[in-house]
Design a protein that fits this description.
With 251 residues, the chain is of the alpha+beta class. It has eleven helices and five strands, in the order E-E-H-E-E-H-E-H-H-H-H-H-H-H-H-H. The protein has a five-stranded mixed sheet with strand order 3-4-2-1-5, covered by helices on one side.
Length: 251
Amino acid sequence: MPAPSITITSELSGSVVAKGANDDLPAMILKHAGFRQIEDWHGRRHRLPTTMPVADQVAVASHAAEMLRAARYGVDLAPSLDEARMSTLATPLESYAAGAALLQITDKIRSAESGEALRRVVDQLLHPEHGALERVREALEAAGEHISDLDDEAYRLADRFGFAADFVVSAQSELVDSEDELLRVGGPSRSGTELPARSSDLSVSRSAALAVALAVSPAAAKADIAATAFGTGVAESRPAVRPPHASGPRR
């Protein structure tokens, strides 16, 4: 009889699960690869920790599939966990080093095991001088300015880049001073009575941050976006000139 097929796939929670390894040999192979065995009313299955970085999950799952196939077991490996397939897709990313670096930050965020660890990783995004958001804002603003330098007739396109830069400013404003809150993530649960107030405050802060971005954008001055999102009050109070945003020194 042919050996039973084993499925290795990724769940919505982010964990990698192997199902169908009901015999001792495939269970031993999966354990050797790095999976943890779980037995409950669902039956026997093997799982990788959700805190494991995505790159490590791909490597472990691919290695487990290779060993199982060598033992003559059929393996249905999810394409997103196939290291050989992923390596063929990695070549286009070589032209997008910044995007690849952000993917690494995303992996570190997902594998953070405490609020402090999460804060350290998120700082790479939010640092006011060297964070990724500030670099993106500078790049968008520079693109808009250079478009104007190259072609003064392309002011609409230049304004769109300036508008996008202003939305990054609103994102930075939304998350300013979030370090202390990140440190409390994973700590003692807060009382349920605090949740409605927090939700209300969050809604107000997001609206205010977006209103600031719309108010200072030259592109928004020519569009009806503010009137649609906030009513005529915001649109009428918006200044015509966007104040300069002082960027931190580059090092």
